[in-house]
């Protein structure tokens, strides 16, 4: 084996790590020793980011050793363990996360990691940094969820207004037919959510939100870690993660004192139709933290990391320089 061959290492690494009773899939994009480690907490629950991580790596360069975890009930972790180990509670997911972070701290010989939480991942990440700031170098919220019912109520009004401005009468009728949204009945709300998300997708962007099933599948298939079995996990997201979806409906960040002992940064889409930026901004103003940063990326929605990868990477670089 020549010296040149030795230097050409695989740009990513896959592994399964045992934590909190099951094996968890981790996808690593390692950089130079000493580079800050960033753990990406995907949305959903159940919507893995690992299959799209190659796109992020292309945009982010050498800024972070970034790691993508398929959570319990999602992606390759679901395929590995089966539905017998489906998610049961937020507490269980936080315990999973603590185990994964413990592994990363040992693997990379670092005391603290950067957490990036997207959508549902922002719920998990916010709760974790409030409990375990000693392990978090910084928290970055993207598509930050402040409170599910508040989010849905505000998002409904904003989506209806966007549909009216666009002159889309079909969407206007469909939204108005939902009545007093969101309904107080959790079961009814879960039934309405898929319809609501389809409408919102028309006013969103990015490979994981708004570009349609065809582009989503094409993006997945181009991933170097894609397997056809990954599609089976996607078909089971709602059913397997139902307990978490129900618990999320009562989640409110405002129920917790907004005193963070780690740096807090929000990177938000200007026109996020799912987690309205107006709510995130209002909550952010109440936060007490050693360092705070609030960035809105123009012309983006719920997934700015994919919608405007260059601008998102520039905002990440600014945060990286503060670490």
TrEMBL record:
Name by which UniProt lists this protein: Alpha/beta hydrolase
Keywords: Hydrolase
A Gene Ontology biological process term: proteolysis
GO-annotated molecular function: aminopeptidase activity
Species for this entry: Pusillibacter faecalis
InterPro entries reported in the protein's UniProt record: AB_hydrolase_1, AB_hydrolase_fold, AB_hydrolase_sf, Peptidase_S33
Domain AB hydrolase-1: 38-315
Transmembrane region(s): none
């Amino acid at each position: 084996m020549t010296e040149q061959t030795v230097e050409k290492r695989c740009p990513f690494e896959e592994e399964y790590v045992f934590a909190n009773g099951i094996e968890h899939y981790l996808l690593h994009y390692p950089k130079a020793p000493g580079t800050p480690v960033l753990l990406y907490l995907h949305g959903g629950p159940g919507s893995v980011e690992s299959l799209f991580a190659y796109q992020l790596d292309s945009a982010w360069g050498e800024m972070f050793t970034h790691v993508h975890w398929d959570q319990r009930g999602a992606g390759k972790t679901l395929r590995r363990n089966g539905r017998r180990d489906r998610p049961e509670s937020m507490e269980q997911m936080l315990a999973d996360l603590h185990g994964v972070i413990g592994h990363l701290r040992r693997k990379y010989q670092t005391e603290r990691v950067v957490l990036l939480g997207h959508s549902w991942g922002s719920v998990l990440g916010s709760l974790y940094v409030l409990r375990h700031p000693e392990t978090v170098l910084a928290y970055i919220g993207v598509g930050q969820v402040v409170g599910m019912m508040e989010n849905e109520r505000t998002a409904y009004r904003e989506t209806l207004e966007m549909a009216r401005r666009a002159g889309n009468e079909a969407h206007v009728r469909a939204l108005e037919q939902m009545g007093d949204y969101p309904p107080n009945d959790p079961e009814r709300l879960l039934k309405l959510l898929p319809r609501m998300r389809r409408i919102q997708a028309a006013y969103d962007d990015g490979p994981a939100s708004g570009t349609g099933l065809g582009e989503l599948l094409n993006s997945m298939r181009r991933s170097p870690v894609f397997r056809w079995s990954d599609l089976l996990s996607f078909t089971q997201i709602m059913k397997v993660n139902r307990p978490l979806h129900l618990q999320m409906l009562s989640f409110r960040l405002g129920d917790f004192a907004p005193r963070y002992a780690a740096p807090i940064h929000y990177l938000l889409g200007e026109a996020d139709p799912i987690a309205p930026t107006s709510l995130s901004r209002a909550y952010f103003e109440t936060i007490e933290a050693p360092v705070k940063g609030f960035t809105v990326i123009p012309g983006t929605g719920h997934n700015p990391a994919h919608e405007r990868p260059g601008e998102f990477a520039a905002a990440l670089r600014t945060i990286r320089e503060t670490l």
